[in-house]
Write a structure and sequence with these properties.
- The structure is a single chain.
- Helix content is about 35%, strand content about 20%.
- It has eleven helices and eight strands.
- Helix 2 packs across helix 4.
- The longest helix has 13 residues.
- The protein starts with a helix and ends in a 26-residue tail after the last strand.
Length: about 280
C-alpha cells in the first residue's frame, strides 16, 4: 500500500474521531444551497454516530433518484449513503466503497437501524472495502450504475485519473458522476503535497481547476458542469504559512457519460426546456 493511502487511513481511521477534530473547514459542508425536504427528512433519521463521523465538503444529492442504482466513492461513515438510501426508495440500491476499516465498521453497524427508520423490509444499501481506483475489482460491473456520488474524496486519491476512469467504466450510458471536492487555484509546492495534516484535511491533494477539466474529458466524460462553489478558509497560522498565497474552494460538479450520437454526427447544440416537473425542484 502506498504511503499516501496509509496516511489517509491513519488520519480518518484513528486521528479523527469526530468532525470537531478537523483543523480546517475543507471537510465541512459549506454549501449555501437549500436542502430539499426529502434530504432534511432523511438527515433527521440518521444515527448520531454516523453524523458525528461525517467528513464532507458539499451536497451530493442529485434530483429524481428514485429507483436508481448509486455508488458512493469514499463513503466513510455512510452518512450520504443513508440519505440516498431513503431518496432512492426500496426499489433503488446504494453501494458505498471505502478503504478505511474503522469508517466501514461504523457504516455497517447501523444498516439495520436505518432500514427500520425508513420502513424498508430488505436493506437497499451495502458497504464494500476497496479502492476507488479499482471499482471493478471491488465487484461492481461495468455499465451497471446510474449515478456515482463522492464527497471530498477524490483529492485524497493518489491516482485521480484512474479513479475517474473507473467511475466512467461502471456508469451506464447517460449516467452521471455528481461529486463535491476541494480545488486549488494554482499548482501546490511539494511541501504542501507531502504535509500529512494538509493532505488529510483535503488540501494537500487538491486538484487545480483546469486539471479536472482535462482529466474528465480524457477519460470520456462530457465537459464538467459546475453546480455550486464555496470558498475554503484556513485560519491556523502554521497551515496558512505552508500554503502561501494559494486559494482553495469546495465545488460540486456533474460529469455525464454521454455516448456519441450517430443521429447527430456534427454534435449540433440541442435546446432543452425544463418544465419544473421534478418534486422539490421547481
Amino acid at each position: 500500500m502506498s504511503e499516501t493511502r496509509l496516511g489517509v487511513q491513519e488520519y480518518y481511521g484513528k486521528t479523527l474521531q469526530r468532525s470537531d477534530d478537523l483543523k480546517t473547514n475543507a471537510c465541512c459542508t459549506v454549501s449555501k444551497r437549500k436542502l430539499i425536504q426529502g434530504v432534511r427528512d432523511a438527515i433527521r433519521q440518521l444515527h448520531d454516530e454516523v453524523v458525528s463521523k461525517y467528513y464532507g465538503c458539499g451536497l451530493v444529492f442529485p434530483e429524481a433518484v428514485e429507483g436508481c442504482r448509486i455508488v458512493d466513492l469514499g463513503s466513510g461513515s455512510g452518512r450520504d449513503c443513508y440519505i440516498l438510501s431513503k431518496l432512492v426508495g426500496p426499489n433503488g440500491y446504494v453501494t458505498g466503497v471505502d478503504m478505511t476499516k474503522e469508517q466501514l465498521q461504523v457504516a455497517r453497524n447501523h444498516i439495520d437501524y436505518h432500514m427500520k427508520q425508513f420502513g424498508y423490509q430488505t436493506p437497499n444499501v451495502s458497504f464494500l472495502e476497496g479502492y476507488i481506483e479499482d471499482l471493478i475489482g471491488c465487484g461492481i460491473p461495468r455499465d451497471s450504475v446510474d449515478i456515482i456520488v463522492s464527497n471530498c474524496v477524490i483529492n485524497l486519491c493518489p491516482d485521480k485519473q484512474t479513479a475517474l476512469q473507473e467511475a466512467y467504466n461502471i456508469l451506464k450510458s447517460g449516467g452521471e458522476m455528481y461529486f463535491s471536492d476541494i480545488y486549488a487555484d494554482k499548482d501546490l509546492p511539494p511541501e504542501v503535497r507531502k504535509d500529512k495534516i494538509l493532505y488529510g484535511e483535503c488540501i494537500g491533494g487538491a486538484l487545480v481547476w483546469t486539471d479536472l477539466m482535462k482529466i474528465a474529458c480524457e477519460v470520456g466524460f462530457a465537459p464538467p458542469v459546475l453546480v455550486d462553489v464555496s470558498p475554503i478558509t484556513i485560519d491556523k497560522p502554521e497551515l496558512k504559512q505552508l500554503i502561501g498565497n494559494a486559494r482553495f474552494c469546495s465545488a460540486t460538479y456533474r460529469l455525464f457519460k454521454v455516448e456519441p450520437d450517430d443521429s447527430n454526427p456534427s454534435n449540433t447544440v440541442i435546446e432543452v426546456v425544463y418544465k419544473g416537473s421534478i418534486p422539490d425542484h421547481p
